[in-house]
What does this fold into?
Amino acid sequence: MAKIIVVEDDTEIREALVDVLVHEKHTVDALGDGADAWESLQRFQYDLVILDWGLPGLDGLEVLKRFRGNGGGTPVLFLTGRNTVDEKLTGLDSGADDYLPKPYDMREFRARVSALLRRPKELTSDIIRWSDIELDGKAFRCLRRGEEIRLLPKEFALLDFLIRNRNLVFTPDQLVDKLWAGDAEVSVDAIRQCVKRLRTKIDVSDRPSYITTVVGVGYKVESE
It folds into this structure.
């Protein structure tokens, strides 16, 4: 089961897409406005973005450019009636992972969705570098400016997740669901305590915290 956002201004098409995805046991957020979609993409993490080109508020191409420009790595499937070669290349060059022109068969739509969800995610890579932090998932090691910082497993997992999904804001509940679903020992308060311990270990005095608190919402790590 994946969490998917569908952004399509045609109500009938949007509802049809949602029906197919829900039937496949996915969780779906459905929107019809590009500006609303951009706001959701900044606040929440998705496993797949399904995006129409012609949208009110912000068009799909602008949403895509902003999303990629802010570090969004989630696969994006473009659905649009614009099907010339130049338009396809524009969409793909702007960061789309796949392009499905209208009209399309729902069987092909399901196949494209399944293929994108099967793609290896960035989370599978062993080493990530951000600012002066380096995380080695294979060796389970955190370095800041070359100096090792010893982190507990949940601290490491939280920092790794936030860095890989930088610029996206996650509520404590979302972090529990994403990182430790089914772990009865992890609560919303445990997430807050984990963030507090992380800051104590990795932050540098007289510098802003690596982990930003978005008041009333949750936490994020920003691009450098």
User: Anything to note?
Assistant: The first strand starts at residue 3 and ends at 7. The chain has two domains: 3-118, 123-220. The mean pLDDT is 85. DSSP finds eight helices and eleven strands in the chain.
